[in-house]
Give the backbone structure.
Amino acid sequence: MAPVTVRAPAKVNLALAVGAPSSDGFHPLATVYQAVSVYDDVRAVAAEPGEFSVRVTGADSDDVPTDERNLAVRAARMLAQRHDVKGAGAALHIHKSVPVAGGMAGGSADAAAALVACDALWGVQAPRSGLLELAAELGSDVPFCLVGGTAVGSGRGEQVTPVLGRGSYSWVIAYAERGLPTPQVYAELDRIRAGRAVPLPVVPGQLMNALRNGNARALGDALCNDLQAAALELRPELARILDVGDAAGALASLVSGSGPTTLFLARDDEHASDVATALSSAGVCRLAQRVTGPVPGARVIR
Ligand code: C5P
């Protein structure tokens, strides 16, 4: 069994409409995901039957649990169990570039990568639909990390439908000093909305048109995030980062997913460099990075 390395992308949300929580505490979503060019790599090596381990290196690696809570380990175990893989075991090595607790689906990317890596390592050849089902059980964003590209997410975000769009977009991502736990941001949104009627979440038609036409300016006008108000309430200093992006002429400046990562749409790569430089030199964030999207979902690279 030759070792397998899989690369999985981070996501940004171009739209994130959040409904009222249902009885299980989850919120119905209408979202548009885009996979962007910042990746975690997961390498899977065969181990003794029943032995599963993980080692984590790279950005924020100290913040990732290496026990049974690790989402990549859970993914590997789940694949082995559901497909009754005889003698399955794996030593996983996650190399992180996606920030932890940054609202960019870093843990979900690792789970998606582990599913694809162990599927190849053990020669399971699970059908795509089977992998997507396991992914949905592991977390709301995991199916999208498998699919990649640009896609509409519904349900909890786990029901993913690819969007046929044109072109590639130049983004800048600004990482904050500290992460923000996703459940806390949803709870803050519920608190802000308490006593108010919350409409069913829908993806704006204007945004879908912008994607179909590949029009960055129109896309910038249509980007939206219901979690932004909650993230700003919890981290007021994020407003300053958004202001710097606006002043640098970003087509849009917004919180990415549940934050605290912020997202800026640039006109082109050169403008993205200018926006990234403005953010870095203002000293408002830990790191400002240029990325492009869409990029493919989790795939074997070695
Ligand atoms: O599904 P996932 O494990 O990624 O979700 C992390 C947390 O985010 C959930 O435990 C829940 O608190 C919150 N969440 C939510 N509604 C969603 C997705 C996530 O409330 N649709």
